[in-house]
Write a structure and sequence with these properties.
The chain has 129 residues and is α+β, with helices and mostly antiparallel strands. It has two helices and six strands, in the order ααββββββ. The protein has one domain. It has a six-stranded antiparallel sheet with strand order 1-6-2-3-4-5. The longest helix is centred in the N-terminal third of the chain and has 9 residues. The radius of gyration is 13 Å and the shape is globular.
Length: 129
């Protein structure tokens, strides 16, 4: 079952950031607070975003990177979670945040960037189930 926004995109933008109990603006915190997704150890990969037909993934769906074992990674090669807005053949448009950025904003995560980090490589994103 995919997790989708429980708030409006306007509410996300107005709030600016989502902070966890430690005071950090991690990507996961934005996804969890806006979609009611569970803790990351309960996440499983659903639809591969790059392979989805246009319109197959609902706007506002939670997406994340997963490793080869189908887990939210913890191996030093990067990990990220975001709110899906749309995608095309070049990349995924998302709402996301991370600690050094400190706020939620819209950006495009490109496909086939050859990035070492999964966080900036669109081919590594799946719908969270």
């Amino acid at each position: 079952m995919p997790y989708t926004l429980q708030v409006t995109e306007a509410e996300i933008s107005a709030r600016e950031s989502y902070v966890n109990a430690k005071g950090n603006t991690e990507c996961v915190e934005c996804v969890r607070q806006t979609t009611a997704a569970p803790a990351t150890f309960r996440w499983h990969p659903g639809q591969h975003v790059q392979e989805a037909k246009l319109g197959q993934i609902a706007r506002g769906t939670a997406i994340a990177t997963f490793d080869d074992k189908g887990r939210y990674p913890n191996d030093g090669k990067g990990r990220h979670a975001a709110i899906y807005l749309s995608h095309d053949k070049t990349g995924i448009v998302v709402l996301d945040q991370w600690n050094s950025k400190g706020k939620v904003s819209r950006r495009t995560i490109r496909f086939n960037t050859k990035s070492y980090s999964r966080s900036n490589e669109g081919t590594t994103f799946y719908v969270i189930e």
